[in-house]
Structure formats: C-alpha cells, structure tokens
Amino acid sequence: MGARVVVVIDGDETLREVLRFSLVDEGFDVTLLSAGSELMERLVSSLPDVLVLSSSLPGLNGIEICRRLRTEPATMRVPVVLLVPAESESDRLTGLAAGADDCLVEPFPSVELAIRVKNLLRRMHPNLLSHMIRVGDLTLDREAHRVHRQKKEVRLGPTEFRLLEFLMRYPGRVYSRTELKRSLWGDGATVDERAVDVHIGRLRKGISLGKADQVIRTVRGAGYALGDV
Fold it and tell me: Which among 126, 100, 102, 132 is positioned nearest to 114, based on CA atoms?
C-alpha cells in the first residue's frame, strides 16, 4: 500500500518526535515542521494526506493556517487535525469554526492521534486505507499488484503502477510534475521532471480504451489529473 503522508507542525520538538514515532508505527510517512511559514512554502509544491497542526504555533498559528487552507481551492479539502493546549481549550471551538476536521486537547496519548488520523482518512478518503481502489471502471489492487479496467486486466510496469495508484488517491486533483516526481522517486531524486511525462505516456497507453479516451488529463501549465473513467 502506498505511504500516506502526514505533516506534523508543532513548536515542541519533543512532542513532534513522540507523534512521529506513533504515526510511523501505523505505517504513515511523516514530515515534521516547526513553523507555519515552513508549511505554506511546502504546500506550493506538495499536498499531504493529513495535516496535524498546533493551535499555538509562533507567528502563523494553526487556526490561521486552517482559515487560509479553506479559502484556497487546492487545499480546501486537505484533512486537518488541530492540537490544542489544555490552557487554551477555547481554541477548540475556534479551530473547528476555522475549518479543522478534528481537535485533540493536550495532553493526550500519542496513539490517539494515530487512531483519529485513520478515522479521518476512512471517512474522507477511504481509498487511502483500503488495499482496493476503485475509480469509475478502474480497479487497482495494492496487495496483488494488479489493475483492471472494465473487468479486463491491464499490464503495467512497476513505475506506471505506482503512478496510477498515486493519481487514484484523489481523482480529479491536478498534480504537478514535481509532486508526481516526488511520489515516484522521493525527495532529492536527481531524475529529470520530464521523465514523469514519459511514464504518464506509458500509463495512458496501458489503460486507455482508444484515442478519444482522456482518462488522464493534461492541465496546461499545471500538471496531470485522473479524469472521468
């Protein structure tokens, strides 16, 4: 199953590490940040599956980040869990009103965060937790490593399989070449971004039903998206 990406933003380094261990134990790919400004820079090129934010971040705090996320089309659907200090419990209602999907009042057992993140994904993006992903007439089995379209098996190479799995997580979302490159080869890879175009072409050839079948859309100047299938 593809790694589900959680970004944790908290000013407390010790708490960040505790939360990271708990989430990694549950199979999440975790990125730790200490300031809201770092997050806003990262969101320009990559969206996580879940954000975990502290309401008491210095500078740009978690509540203000929620407000900003919910006003931008690209980020308005990113699930957010807000962490609220016990002495600022009033932030819980303010955070929910600002767009947080769930809130945890500190202190809390670290395992509770992992449970809430899973529940949030199960409710909002079930494709991220199931080994079977279905989008229209496309079915991808993460465990068996098989793809079917209209009940006929499609033969894909390993890179094209990973690419399709990533696109099927959020049908309709436009992914930049940078995001797709990161999903295929990780951060810091020296692969040219144009290699993404090559694998998109191979994937299209593998799953297309004909020349008029635009199952993967090219969005000029933005990237690629899995269209209606």
Answer: 102
- pLDDT the model gives residue 128: 63
Q: Are strands 146-149 and 138-141 parallel, antiparallel or unpaired?
A: antiparallel
Per-residue pLDDT of 14-47, as tens digits, reads 888 999 998 998 888 888 988 888 888 778 767 8
DSSP 8-class letter at 3: P
Query: Which element (helix H / strand E) includes 54?
Result: strand 50-54
d(CA 174, CA 177): 10
Q: Which residue has the tokens 């820079």?
A: 41
C-alpha span between 203 and 99 (Å, rounded):
36
All structural domains of the chain:
4-128 (3.40.50.2300), 132-226 (1.10.10.10)
d(CA 119, CA 188): 31
Residue 101's pLDDT is 93
